[in-house]
Amino acid sequence: MVQLTREMKRLVDSENGTVSREIFWNQDIYDQEMEQVFARSWLFVGHESQIPNPGDYFLGRMGEEAVVVSRARDGGIYVFLNSCRHRGNRVCRYDHGNSFTHVCSFHGWTYDATGALVALPYHENGYDQMDKSKWGLMQARVEVFQGSIWATWDKSAPSFHEYLGGADMYLATGLLHTDGSDNGAEVLGGVVKWRLGCNWKVPCPDTDITHGWITHRSTALALGVGATGNPVRPQGDRSLAVGQVRSRYTVSFPEGHTMGVTIPEEADPGWGESGTWNERPAVREYLREKFELRRKRLGVMAHLSVGPAIFPNEGWLGRVVRIMHPQGPAMTEIWTYFFVDKDAPQEVKTELANYYELYYGPGGVTQQDDMENWYALTIASKGPVAQKLDLNYQMRLSEPPLHGPTEFDMPGLFAHNYSDENHRRYYQRWAEVMQAKDWGEMAPTQAAAARGDWMTNRNGR
Amino acid sequence: MADLLSNEELLLRLEIEDFLYMEADLLDEHRYEEWLDLFTEDARYHAPMKRNVSSKEMDKELTRESIEMSWFDEGKDTLEKRVAQIRTGVHWAEEPLSRVTHFVSNVRLLDSGSDKVGAGEIRVKSRFLVHRNRLEDEDNTWIGNRIDTLRRVDGQWKIARREIYLDQNVLLSKNLTNFF
């Protein structure tokens, strides 16, 4: 695996399960992240359903910077930096719309839906030497996965498929139709955006299973249903007592992706049986009907419903995607996208919208308490004394992973459900990306080698 | 110029203003259960989001109720759950309770007229400025307007519908734990 420099190992020590608080506060480290992490990684920028027609566009974000996500006349999707090549002004002023031209409000440089410079005032007698084709808006590489749109600035980055390192099947679960067919999801109108005073990394590694009983105690007491919308299994040996929940694991990838996975079993109840839908009968009936089809299409894997956090800043909660956009070391702008089946009856979409609104986002009964903690830990870690105290990620540090992926024929590194293994993996990858000069030094081949170490040593460290 | 108000209309406006100020007191004094009693059983509490759209497409500015996402899209049942959550004492985002002050102004009766004085339902527009101060130095301000539909039930005004229009696009606070 990638050898970390001494300085980087001081910040992220996976062998001892510690992370320096500096990486959540230090401005120099933050500036380096913008270059090393955000300018080189594949980033989620939106979903095809937000731009169904040619000329449709919406504003996205890559790191701190605004991008236009646009569908051109040929149906292709383009992602370009929302900064005029002339004097740097913002070109697109709207959250979304439909237009085949984007006209800069400063001097009128005009770009088409692909981001190409197509017109500029005084061109003929003022810029006789200028080659317009070289002055289009800065283009990102774009890939579409099950309708979700991903972009990177780095021309040497591997394909998105390689970048996922085998996490594809998990990422697909929320993007498929409930009946298991491809490209079945759409984003409900209105991306929910808000600012939170914490470092962007704090909410990223998934899954932090041990926070739920205390952070979300008030939700459990007052509302009494699960917050993810995932199936709630029968009580008994799978109850959420502290200890291993049978067949549930944290799963990580050397590429930095992290998630919690419940191994699907034949006897699992369908998604419509979750207690979450007790007060939402239209959703329950709909899920019962569609899940039957999913079972037929996907077999036992139909039950797989995980929220993979794709490195560096994408995460899932049920069928909700949230992106942590950096806004300085101690400020994050969270954008949340809510998915439903695109052809679901309006009644079902409405019940789901109400459900999402109640649990997620700044008004969400669950997330409010997460954000209180993320903000408070940021404030309490600011001082020079606190800054010298490393954070603890030692849960089950000495235990090897419970099972390798071959046991279930599922990709990823499986570890105990109550473990910090995912966090250690996430920050290890962050450190590798932060010190790597180029993709050659952090390519999936390196990550694959790390995977080999893991399987050989049974601990991967 | 608007028609002169009749005495009945003036009295009605005073009555409605008094109702809104009393409601603000209940919220600011953390008397949430009494506040809930001000809502009808079928009440709607909706706060759409505002998008940056072309001035020619202002009809697309607001997210649509029950079809698109909102800051809030609630019935009385979920408002009750939110209050119950605060009362658990372990709702960390409101533990300890925030200090909140509601300013309500620009109160205007819509669809007003002498024929509405005796009506069972009336729409009221108002502006709000909500200030929240929390723990040592956390401080937020939200400004916007509301359109309420008030209904007379057994001689008492109740809120049958509240529309909350917040003047923000990206919400500039970490959460919305308080009521508007």
Helix content of chain A: 25-40%
Q: Order of strands across the biggest sheet of chain B? A: 2-1-6-5-4-3
Q: Largest sheet of chain A, described in full?
A: 5 strands, antiparallel
Please identify which CATH superfamily of the largest domain in chain A we are dealing with.
Answer: Naphthalene 1,2-dioxygenase Alpha Subunit, Chain A, domain 1
Helix/strand order of chain B, N-terminal first:
HHEEHEEEE
Low-confidence stretches of chain A: 227-244, 453-461
Largest sheet of chain B: 6 strands, mixed
Number of discrete helical segments of chain A: 14
CATH topology name of chain B = Nuclear Transport Factor 2, Chain: A
How much of the residues of chain A is beta strand, in percent?
A: 15-25%
**What is the highest CATH level, the class of the largest domain in chain A?**
Alpha Beta
Mean pLDDT of chain A: 88
Nutshell version of this structure?
Chain A has 461 residues and is an alpha+beta fold. Chain A has 14 helices and 21 strands. In chain A, a hairpin with a 5-residue loop joins strand 15 and strand 16.
What is the topological layout?
The complex is a heterodimer of chains A (461) and B (180).
Chain A: H1 6-11, E1 12-13, E2 18-19, H2 27-38, E3 43-47, E4 56-62, E5 65-71, E6 77-81, E7 96-98, E8 101-103, E9 110-112, E10 117-119, H3 123-126, E11 141-145, E12 148-152, H4 160-164, H5 168-172, E13 185-187, E14 192-196, H6 212-215, H7 217-222, E15 248-252, E16 258-262, H8 281-298, E17 314-317, E18 320-326, E19 332-341, H9 346-359, H10 367-380, H11 384-387, E20 391-392, E21 413-416, H12 421-435, H13 439-442, H14 444-457
Antiparallel strand pairs in A: 1-2, 2-20, 3-12, 4-5, 4-7, 5-6, 8-9, 9-10, 11-12, 13-19, 14-19, 15-16, 15-21, 17-18, 18-19
Helix pairs in contact in A: 2-12
Chain B: H1 7-28, H2 32-36, E1 39-48, E2 70-75, H3 76-87, E3 99-110, E4 121-134, E5 138-153, E6 156-166
Describe this structure in words.
The complex is a heterodimer of chains A (461) and B (180). Chain A has 14 helices and 21 strands. Chain A is α+β, with helices and mostly antiparallel strands and 461 residues long. Chain A has two domains: 43-126 and 135-143, Rieske Iron-sulfur Protein (3-layer Sandwich); 164-457, Naphthalene 1,2-dioxygenase Alpha Subunit, Chain A, domain 1, CATH 3.90.380. In chain A, strand 11 (141-145) and strand 12 form a beta hairpin. In chain A, helix 2 (27-38) crosses helix 12. The radius of gyration of chain A is 23 Å and the shape is globular. Residues 227-244 and 453-461 of chain A have low confidence and may be disordered. Chain B is of the alpha+beta class and 180 residues long. Chain B has one domain: Nuclear Transport Factor 2, Chain: A (Roll), CATH 3.10.450.50. Helix content of chain B is 22%, strand content 38%. Chain B has helices at 7-28, 32-36, 76-87; strands spanning 39-48, 70-75, 99-110, 121-134, 138-153, 156-166. Chain B has a six-stranded mixed β-sheet with strand order 2-1-6-5-4-3. The longest helix of chain B has 22 residues, at 7-28. Classes of the chains: A alpha+beta (461), B alpha+beta (180). The A-B interface holds A 93-97, 188-197, 215, 217-219, 221-223, 333, 338, 346, 349-350, 353-354, 356-358, 361-363, 365, 367-369, 371-373, 375 and B 47, 49, 51-54, 57, 63-64, 66-74, 78, 81-82, 84-93, 138, 169-177.
